[in-house]
Amino acid sequence: MTTPKPKSQGLIKSLVGIRGYLSVVVVAVHLAPFAIALAPVTRPVFLPIWHHAYVALDMFFVLSGFVVTAGYRKVFARWPGWGVFGKFLWARLSRFYPVHLAVLAVLVGAVLGARAIGREIPHGGDLGVDLLRQITLTSGWGGADSLTWNGPVWSLSAEWFCYLLLPLLQPLVLLLRTRWACLAGYLVACAIPLVSYTIIGFDDGTITYGMPLPRALGFFLAGACLQQLVHVDRRVPELAGRITGPLAIAALGLIVLTSNLQLSTMYALPVVGLVVLALGEERGWLDRVLSTRFSMVFGEVSVAIFLTHVPWLLGASLLINPRTFPGAWGWLGIALLLVGVGVCGWLAFVLVEKPGQRIMRAMVKRPAKAPAASVEERTEAVVESPAPSAPREEARDEARTGR
Q1: Residue 392 needs a FRET pair 20 to 30 A away by CA distance; which of 11, 313, 319, 353 works?
Q2: Cβ neighbours around 21 below 10 Å, total
Q3: Does residue 11 contact residue 380 with C-beta atoms inside 8 Å?
Q4: pTM above 0.70, yes or no
Q5: Each residue of 84-122: pLDDT tens digit?
Q6: How far apart are the first and last CA of the chain?
Q7: How far apart are alpha carbons 295 and 333 in whole angstroms?
Q8: Contact criterion met (CB below 8 Å) for 401 and 60
């Protein structure tokens, strides 16, 4: 089969930009109970978001599978050796672990400090096993009784599990060498969480801390299959690219429909995930919006916002609540909470995330590397090296994809 020719070799800025807007949806989910308490009139807006907008996290998994496969499909086509694998994991870890540890340290300090003066700060966990699971990034591997400490870390933990399995997953994805095989693989991957949770239930506990791995693994694989489709076929990606806007609107409509039918919005993911494929074609108004400088910066800060917003909301709610901001003042309280989310995220990005990345990468003699996307691969996450054993800097993947 002739290798399909991609449209361009340019940076897919929209895949960076969309991360920021997805983080806004996640923030809105966690802001919802505070906003409803401060301004009850917002209930019709925030209640559906609170219960149904978690689909944004699933799209993160699809996006991650798409981007990581673009950057590492040649490296992990076969076992690259423990050295390359270790550097890959270290580079992935450098993207979020410094902020994660910093936030966790603040939380532990606050809990211990409060206990010293006879107070207790709710954090949902203990200083033993629960804290250890947060530090080792295993809190999102299932079997937990609740979300503890920094709750949103469960999704990064589940994604970390996908990274650990990448040497096994990537060769399987590369076996999909036709358009129909890739599309079938995509549907099968989407079916992993959908079938699993249809059987055991879509309740919040099950899909976040009880048994979240089918969710993460299934949608990560779905993204990987879409990237493989880009590599082996041009017709479907180009078609998706021509209807990026309508496809995104249809996906949003399907999310609204499933929520109104009291179904899990996760059922909309087979369509929602195709938006990632469409954005990879860099066409239309939606791509232009997501490719602006504002959107790019927003996407780069998304990890820091994701890791800091819940601790900020919980801490700030001690001062910003219906008692201190009664009546119409509740709107000001909501605004202050939102401003705080942005400030905390930006400070964590500038003061912790970027310096932490530099320090971690300086700790290895040669930073983790990945082959660059070839002309056939629709993203410039990386630059292809002469041999899988000598891929180029992971830093390029990080900087260009916002991962």
Answers
A1: 353
A2: 15
A3: yes
A4: yes
A5: 999 999 999 999 999 999 999 999 988 888 788 877 776
A6: 32
A7: 26
A8: no
Question: Any idea where the domains of the chain sit in the sequence?
Answer: 14-401
DSSP string, 7-41: S-----THHHHHHHHHHHHHHHHHHHHHHHHH-GG
Residues making up the chain, counted from first to last = 403
Q: Within 10 Å of residue 392's Cβ, how many Cβ atoms?
A: 18
Task: Give the span between the Cα atoms of 227 and 221, in whole angstroms.
Answer: 10
Helix, strand and coil percent figures for the chain, each rounded to 5: 70, 0, 30
Exposure string (b/e) for 157-195, b if CB count within 10 Å is 16 or more? Answer: bbbbbbbeebbebbeebbebeebebbbebbeebbebbbe
DSSP type of residue 383: B
State pLDDT tens for residues 33-63.
999 999 999 999 999 899 888 899 999 999 9
Quote the CA–CA distance of 400 and 380 in Å, as a whole number: 7
Count CA atoms closer than 13 A to 269's CA, side-chain side. 35
The position carrying tokens 């979240």 is: 212
DSSP letter for each residue of 95-158: HHHHHHHHHHHHHHHHHHHHHHTT-----SS-TTHHHHHHHTT-TTSS--SS--SSTTHHHHHH
Report how far residue 168's alpha carbon sits from residue 202's, in angstroms, rounded to the nearest whole number.
Answer: 28
